[in-house]
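Thread title: Can someone regenerate the structure for this chain?

I was given the following input by a collaborator and told the matching structure tokens would be attached. They weren't. Posting the sequence so someone can regenerate them.
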Amino acid sequence: MINTTWNYPAISVIAVPLLLMIGCAASSPYKHLEFTQDNVSAVHSGMTISEVEVLFGVPDTTYNMKFGKNSGAEWEGLVYKYYGPRDTLYVFAKRRLANTFVFYTAIKPPTLNNWDIEFTSQRSRK
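Best answer:
Regenerated them for you:
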């Protein structure tokens, strides 16, 4: 009969750090700068992508999209989304709050056309 008890410590040495890494990643999946009242109030039409990234960091999601199809003045834009923290009071809500920035890409560099701020942080810069 082969003694296999030595395998259990080896498995726990691998499994415990792996589970800790997964747990840390799940607790804070989105890493961007805070949306304070100060930096949100600095947003204006015509900002470049780099100017928005200086204020808020790299977005959580980006994608290209066509706008104005039904108006006859169709244009392509780049969408930046920054997701807010999960609210434990709304654990069953399917939609997560997101701050969205839409850039007009027909000109170089692309410029901010419109935005929607759904969440801000409580702190402001001093």
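The CA atoms of residues 39 and 55 lie 6 Å apart.
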